[in-house]
Amino acid sequence: MIQCLPGKWFRYEMNDALESNLPKGVAFAGTYAIFANKKCLYVGQSQNIEQRLKGHITMARYSNTWITKWGQFHNLNIAIRHERFRFERVLIEARLIFRLKPVGNIQIQARDFRCKRIET
């Protein structure tokens, strides 16, 4: 069971050892970041981090590697921050995506949001 205080980051290391598993006891709302080889793979926020991580990461059979949507890795690091309010999670997620530029998050350019003026 992980003790994660609201507003504080907790880092969890998953290596290729058989006893290494996905973090347990993180069934709370918060923001998370997945790292491999000192590079950020993905930043996200969820109402239930434990369920969301199960969707992103699985253990490969017979090879002791972690399978993600972004490749297979022997070591993964996960940073988890417990936040109760959704607006805080969304703001933290957006700030981390901007700063870390993870390979798994889609970057939307600001020009895509500009609206063309419709003449009547």
Written overview of the protein:
- With 120 residues, this protein is an alpha+beta fold.
- It has one domain: GIY-YIG endonuclease.
- Helices cover 19% and strands 30% of the residues.
- It contains 2 helices and 7 strands.
- It has helices at residues 49-56, 86-100, and strands at residues 9-14, 30-36, 39-46, 58-59, 66-68, 71-73, 76-82.
- It has a 4-stranded antiparallel β-sheet. Strands 4-5-6 form a 3-stranded antiparallel β-sheet.
- It is globular and about 40 Å long.
- The N and C termini lie far apart (61 Å).
- The model has no long low-confidence stretch (mean pLDDT 81).
Task: Give the helix level as a range of percent.
Answer: 10-25%
Order of helices and strands, N to C? Answer: EEEHEEEEH
CATH class: Alpha Beta
Basic shape: globular
Structural class call reads alpha+beta
Label the CATH architecture: 3-Layer(aba) Sandwich
Q: Unreliable runs, pLDDT <50, ≥5 residues?
A: none
Give the CATH topology.
GIY-YIG endonuclease
Estimated radius of gyration: 17 Å
Q: Count of DSSP helices?
A: 2
Tally of individual domains = 1
- Strand line-up of the largest beta sheet: 1-7-2-3
- Give the amount of beta strand, in percent: 25-35%
**What is the straight-line distance between the termini?**
61 Å
Query: Tally of extended strands?
Result: 7
Q: Give the biggest sheet.
A: 4 strands, antiparallel
Mean pLDDT across residues:
81
